[in-house]
Prior knowledge:
Layout: E1 22-25, H1 39-51, E2 62-65, H2 73-79, H3 83-97, E3 104-112, H4 115-131, E4 138-150, E5 153-162, H5 166-178, E6 185-190
Parallel strand pairs: 1-2
Antiparallel strand pairs: 3-5, 3-6, 4-5
Helix pairs in contact: 1-2, 2-3
Amino acid sequence: EYDILIGTQMIAKGLDFPLVTLVGIINADASLNIPDFRSAERTFQLINQVSGRAGRSDIEGEVVIQGFNVDHYSIQYASQHDYLGFYQKEMEFRKTLKYSPYYNLCLLKIKSSQLKDAFEEGNKIVSYLKKKNLNHIIILGPSASPMVKMNNIYSVQVLLKYKVSSEIMEYLIDLKNIYQTKKVNLDIDLNPLKI
Length: 195
C-alpha cells in the first residue's frame, strides 16, 4: 500500500518486501565509528543485508549508499558483493593488529564508585601481569571504557591479547580471587563480544 518505507536497521533483518526496487542506506559508515575491531565486519554485513531488500522479485533493484567515508574497504567490498575480497582485507588487518582469529582477547573491566580508584586498580593489575614476564601476552590499558560511567559506577578496562589460553588462566584466576574481597569490582570477559 505504501510507496516509501523508512526504518532503522530492523528493515535489514529478514523482512521480505517483493516490490522494493530502490534501497537507500543513509550514514552507511556510522557503524565504522564504534570502537570495536569488528566494526568493519558489522558494516559489511549490514550493507549486504539491507541491499538484499532491493530487487527481490522480477523487478530489478537499485541500492544507493550514502556516508562520509564511503571509500572505506568494507563499504567498497559490500557495494560489489565481494565477500572474498572483504575477507582477505579484513584478515590482513586483523593479523597485523593481532586480533581474532590470530589472537584471543580477554577484557578486564574494573568498576568502582570513584574513577581514580578504578584507574589505580587497573594500573595495579597491569603491574601484576607485567611482573609475571608474560612475553607472549600483549597488555593494553588501563583506559576508560567506552561507557565510562553508568549508574554512578565508573568503568576502566585492560585488554589482553594472547595466543595460548593456558599461559594466562592461572593469573586470571588469581586476579579474580584477589578482587573478591576488594571494594573495586573486576569482571573478566574471555573473547568478549564488545570491547
